[in-house]
Amino acid sequence: MSTDDQHLAYESKHVHEVYEQIASHFSSTRFKPWPIVERFLRGQRPGSVGLDIGCGNGKYLPTNQNVFIIASDRSHSLVDIARVHRPHSAIVADNLSLPHPDAHFDFVISIAVVHHLSTQERRIQAIQTMLETLSRSQASKVDQGQLLVFVWALEQKDSRRGWKFGDEQDVMVPWVMQHHPKNRSGSTLDETASSSKEKKTFQRYYHLYAAGELEQDIKAAGGTVLDGGYERDNWWAIATRSTPE
Predict the structure, then answer these.
(1) Do residues 35 and 231 lie in contact, with contact meaning Cβ atoms separated by under 8 Å?
(2) How far apart are CA 174 and CA 168, in angstroms?
């Protein structure tokens, strides 16, 4: 098995398989758009065509009805959920090997996805793959396609997780799924009874980005950062494809 195959196998076990199993529960907790993502999408010109890479349940697809979005995710179960957001489309696809033509799309969003790739090389490759789909303009950077990326931040000392600069950046984050068993008639048992609650914990791999690291990866991927910042325990950046000198 090659080194790259080993990384893929690791991600399959600690990312892809987990989201397949928790898809329904995960989706039920993801419904409110983040302000910066919402503003980015609403700022797109009417008629624009874009991509949502790692779309999850597709919660961002209804944000702007004046654009068309092709959404994709590695999870079949999450894509099935995202497909309700018509007229947009949702497909199963790999961030490292997108089935889209280069230089065709007005915008791309990647919200809390790239941090699930287990090496810097794979994270840079994912960003590069997305950048390559963006349209190019010889006139100005304003008219070029733009990529919005969000990744989890290492600097979360004020959050319930408490991570801070100097902590380990490659971590396993638990997802606790709780359900209430049903009796023989099919109705839910008394939810107040502790014995009726069953929990299962799944471990998901994350790379926690330190300050400045996302910008470095974007530059290494052939991008130019236009804007960026920190929001909701995430680092974010808006980028375009770099123009050759």
Answers:
(1) yes
(2) 16
Which positions ≥6 away from 145 have C-beta within 8 Å?
A: 103, 105, 106, 107, 108, 133, 134, 135, 136, 240, 241
Residue 157 has pLDDT above 90, yes or no: no
Segment holding 219, helix H or strand E: helix 213-220
Q: Where are the alpha helices (DSSP H) in 64-212?
A: 76-82, 120-132
Amino acid at 73: D
Q: Which residues fall within 8 angstroms of residue 143, CB to CB, at 6 or more apart?
A: 137
Least Cα distance to 68 among 52, 57, 79, 81 occurs for: 52
pTM of the model: 0.90
pLDDT at res. 197? 60
Name the DSSP letter for residue 26.
Answer: H
| Structure tokens that stand for 153 in this block | 């931040």
Q: What is the mean pLDDT of residues 82-89?
A: 95
Structure tokens at 23: 């898809």
Q: Please list the alpha-helical segments (H only) found in 14-119.
A: 17-28, 35-42, 76-82
Residue with tokens 């123009």: 243
Structure tokens at 175: 């997802």
The model's pLDDT over 211-226, given as tens digits with 9 standing for 90+, comes to 999 999 999 999 999 9
Amino acid, res. 137: S
Confidence of residue 139 (pLDDT cuts 50, 70, 90): low
At 171 the three-state DSSP class reads strand
Q: In the chain, which ranges are E strands?
A: 49-53, 68-73, 89-92, 107-111, 146-152, 170-179, 198-207, 223-231, 234-241
